[in-house]
Amino acid sequence: MTMTTPTTTRWTNRFSFLMVGIGASVGLGNLWRFPFQAGENGGSAFVLVYLLCIVGIVYPVLIGELAVGRHMGLSAVGSTKEMARAAGRSPWWGLVGGIGALATYLVLCIYGVISGRVLAFAVAGFTGGFIEDGMPVIYGTPARAFLWQTLFMAITVTIVLRGIHKGIEGFSRVAMPAFFVMLALLCIYSLSNGSAGAAIDYLLSPRFEELTPAVMLAAFGQAFFSVVVGGAAMLTFGAFMDKEANIANDGLVIATSDTIVAMVAGLMIFPIVFQFALDPAMGMGLIFSTMPLSFLQMPAGSLVGGLFFSLAALGALTSSIAMLMLAAVAVEEQLKIQRKTAVLSLGAIAWTVGAISVYFPHLNEEIDFFSGQVMMPIGGILIAVFAGWVAPRSVMREELSGLSEALFNGWRFVVRYVAPLLVGGVLILGVSARF
């Protein structure tokens, strides 16, 4: 069987790659999912496990994904399948990339609904158009929710159709700096006008008695979901990296940036939560029902609300275009169809599933749990096993030349033993506790 030809396309420069990589990891996972996951799972206990997971597991797996992707220059599926074949292993190892890509694509299917609501809230925030129960008039019916979901998916598909350089890079180079500026301004505003002390205590004071298997699973799932490790995005992005790029350093920038954004998002949201005596464990309603009403009671509240949801919309778009791109690259490569056809087809399927979930909201929760807290951790386990046991040591050493020999050996020990066993154990305990 003839091996798929590696791509010759490369990111324009390091800044472009970092903005795309950070944009893929920084999104609603940080601004929406992290705060309500922390609120529902004990605050600082959740944050502690989350940070340990980022440092000890997610970062090592992240650079392993980038290394495999760059060496092979193929999609997530192609890179794992062909590297396994070259190492004398079964091509069925391509399922490692396939499971990750599917997990991320499932997230995209529900992402459009949530992100469409974010767009509606951004418009309503600037105009003060919230109604009594916190829902914008322009979004308050299923038909209108369907239209906003359609708008968001149309924007996503349009950007991805423009390609790697004009579309994804071009958008991320502008969107991410704007995102960081707005995030910093909103955090300063929130800490100045809200209950900063209560928020800091809630997020950072350790409460070890609250550590349960369910909390640990939620934290692990959030870490993998947020940095999109186990979701095949970094495998795909690695295929477009320059051979001279330092994977260890670039991966560290991405993981650190994502973690900082998640923590700053918590410090942006929870001062408002405690200022207005809201319930930090109320889930999605915290962002979409109570906070909009709180904005209207604050100085310059309409502007703040509009900026907050505009920030979320930018993060949502940088993530959604990455999700659609990695799925399209895999489908184009494996099914031998044109990129445009792949993008349009996958966009249409995701839009259809999202449209159905508008009328059956429970579907969102089930997909979110299955993809974020089950499939992505499984994908993370599999890519760790692949990078540690299937990928030749010499190949990974070459790709991770930025690590010293001691650090490389430490990395290999983590991806071979620590990550699979720890994540697997937490996954089993957490899923058992849910059911």
List keywords for this structure.
single chain, Amino acid/polyamine transporter I, 17 helices
How would you sum up this structure in a few lines?
By secondary structure, the protein is mainly α.
Could you characterize the architecture of this molecule?
The protein has 17 helices and no strands. By secondary structure, the chain is mostly helical. It has a single domain, classed as Amino acid/polyamine transporter I. The radius of gyration is 21 Å and the shape is globular. The chain is 79% helix and 0% strand.
Strand content: under 5%
Second CATH tier, the architecture:
Up-down Bundle
In whole angstroms, the N-to-C terminal distance is 44 Å
* Helix run count: 17
- SSE string: HHHHHHHHHHHHHHHHH
Any idea how many domains? 1
Fourth CATH level, the homologous superfamily: Amino acid/polyamine transporter I
Low-confidence stretches: none
At CATH level 3, the topology is Amino acid/polyamine transporter I
Topology:
Blueprint (H helix, E strand, L loop, with lengths): L13 H12 L2 H13 L3 H29 L3 H11 L7 H34 L14 H20 L1 H31 L2 H9 L8 H15 L5 H6 L8 H29 L9 H11 L5 H35 L3 H21 L2 H29 L2 H7 L5 H30 L1
Helix pairs in contact: 1-7, 1-11, 1-13, 2-9, 2-11, 3-4, 3-8, 3-9, 3-11, 3-15, 3-17, 4-5, 5-6, 5-13, 5-14, 5-15, 6-7, 6-13, 6-14, 7-11, 7-13, 8-11, 9-15, 9-17, 13-14, 15-17
